[in-house]
Amino acid sequence: MTTASALTRDDVARLVDHTLLKPEATPADVAALCDEARDLGVLAVCVSPNMLPVDGTGLVVATVCGFPSGKHASAVKAVEAATAVAAGAAEVDMVIDIAAAQSGDFDAVRADVEAVRAAVPAPGVLKVIIESAALSDEAIVGACRAAEAAGADFVKTSTGFHPAGGASTHAVALMAQTVGGRLGVKASGGIRTAEQARAMIDAGATRLGLSGSRAVLDGWTA
């Protein structure tokens, strides 16, 4: 596992999804996000699906699906994801039905992810948001296993919109242990400093979802 101490500022930038998912975001805000992303040298931008297409020159373009509640019919999530891919999204971050995971109905979680996976065929990347702060350890493990069985590429901690909170090093470590390097682990939600980002990477995060990317990268020292 890569340790944060081995990474330069530019290495960390290549782990970042520079994110703008505020409901009030305008096309001008998204254009500014993309310009800032190129200036920072990050890997990707992540924007709301109705903001697509964007000028993603030099960037990976990501979006969200079933966001932020996850309480959408799987067929609706699949249509949303397919529409986003057609509009230029290379990666889709979907939200599972959190209640299904909380109640241990991991067959339902798997079916939900499978529906979206079918709409995001390779080489498209599918990340599965499990809202880890709202789940027990057992539910985190079960949701990650369901996501892997359904063909996901990443599991992701959080939307950043749930009142239970965002990413934690405990959840990231548990998720990384569960997927065992077969899937990526995206830490997102509440990561605002280089120290927090360093802790997430050391816990096993292979991607970071950040809205305050500049502050994190400006604070990074190898």
TrEMBL record:
Primary localization: cytoplasm
Name of protein: Deoxyribose-phosphate aldolase
Keyword list, A-Z: Cytoplasm, Lyase, Schiff base
Short name of one Pfam family: DeoC
Gene3D superfamilies reported in the protein's UniProt record: Aldolase class I
UniProt similarity note: Belongs to the DeoC/FbaB aldolase family. DeoC type 1 subfamily.
Classification via NCBIfam families: deoC (TIGR00126)
